[in-house]
Amino acid sequence: MTRALAAVLLAVLVLAPASVPALAAQCGGDFNAFLNAFGREAQGKGISRNVVASAFSGLTPDAKVLAFDRRQRGTFRKSFEEYAATRVNASRVKRAQQALAKNAALLGRVERQFGVPKELIVAIWGLESDFGTGDIGKMPIVRTVATMAHDCRRTELFQGELLAALTILQRGALSQSELIGAFAGELGQTQFLPSSYIKYAVDFDGNGHVDLRRSVPDVLASTANLLKVNGWKTGQPFGEGTANFMVMREWNRSELYRKTMHYFAQQLGAR
């Protein structure tokens, strides 16, 4: 994920309503005391003692995560025209068209099953990771979200993401070495937070494992599934002021970002 996209997400997370399980480990103070309290709560919610112990073993806060978060606060004050010009240029549109052609059969299946236009799916893919070729992060997600959960500014939100990360490990969906991502704990080619992975990720290549880092079928289908589950209306417009534009809030609550998603999809022929 680019630093610009990370900044959008971090800015949006400040405004996002907390729709996470009620957790009450005390933020701030001693980091190990926080982890111990959180670990007890996690066990009460079904996470095994062994998973907690393994995930938290030797864990320390990541100063780079906090420094990045603080640098990005309040940086997005560009107009839509200014922002879209930096994200949807001729080169990226050309690569998006190539991605549409290369994955035509797959995107056709995804669109038929989930009802989301293939152009919008590819636009999201391009904005989030340059169609899987960009930096999607190699940071341990448990450490990242634990650091943000310990920080008191958005502790409730990130305690929810920390519990979700432990749940992924508990279910065996990903190993700890596979649970890596970007500066706000996002993982995969379209940058799912751990809670979104649990709710929306699907195995679309049929290998019995959801891989949002390497499996293009899983990436594209999971992206479409997030929108479908949140009420996407098949065949309806999705520009500003529409019901589908509101559904896109579940992807990103920034109106600027959603307008850019729509604009990019339009450049690819979406109606």
Biggest sheet: strand arrangement:
1-2
How far apart the termini lie comes to 27 Å
- Largest beta-sheet characterization: 2 strands, antiparallel
Assembly context of the chains: single chain
Low-confidence stretches: 1-8, 10-20
Strand residue percentage: under 5%
Helix count, DSSP H or I runs of 4 or more residues: 14
Using the alpha-carbon principal axes, give the shape: globular
The mean pLDDT is 91
Tell me the series of helices and strands, N- to C-terminal.
Answer: HHHHHHHHEHHEHHHH
Question: What structural class do you assign from the helix and strand content?
Answer: mainly alpha
The number of E-state strands comes to 2
Helix content: 55-70%
Structural Rg? 18 Å
Could you characterize the architecture of this molecule?
With 271 residues, the chain is mostly helical. 57% of the residues lie in helices and 1% in strands. It contains 14 helices and two strands, in the order ααααααααβααβαααα. The chain has a two-stranded antiparallel sheet with strand order 1-2. The protein is globular and about 55 Å long.
Annotate the secondary structure layout.
Elements: H1 3-15, H2 31-44, H3 49-56, H4 63-72, H5 80-87, H6 90-102, H7 104-114, H8 118-129, E1 139-140, H9 141-150, H10 155-171, E2 180-181, H11 194-200, H12 216-229, H13 243-247, H14 255-267
Antiparallel strand pairs: 1-2
Helix pairs in contact: 2-3, 5-14, 6-8, 7-12, 8-12, 8-14, 9-10, 10-11, 11-12
